Amino acid sequence: MQTCANATTIAFSGLEARRVEVQVQLTGGTPGIVIVGLGDKAVSESRERVRAAFASIGLAIPAGRLVVNLAPADMPKEGTHYDLPIALAMMAAIGALPHDALDGVVCFGEVGLDGSLAPAPGALPAAMAAHSMDAAFICPEACGSEAAWAGGEVIAAPSLLALINHFRGGAALKPPERGDLIGGASVPDLRDVRGQEQAKRALEIAAAGAHNILFVGPPGAGKSMLAQRLPGLLPPLSSEELLEVSMLHSVAGLLERGRLTRTRPFRAPHHSASMAALVGGGLRAKPGEISLAHHGVLFLDELPEFSQQALDALRQPLETGQVLIARANHHVTYPARILLAAAMNPCRCGGGPGAGRCRRGPRCAIDYQARLSGPLLDRIDIQLDVPPVTAADLALPPPVEGTAEAAARVGRAREAQSTRGRGLNAVLDLESLESVAAPDAAGAALLAKAAESLALSARAYHRTLKVARTIADLDGSTTVRRIHVAEALSLKRQWAGGEAQRVSA
Question: How many other CB atoms are found less than 10 A from the CB of residue 36?
Answer without folding.
Answer: 13
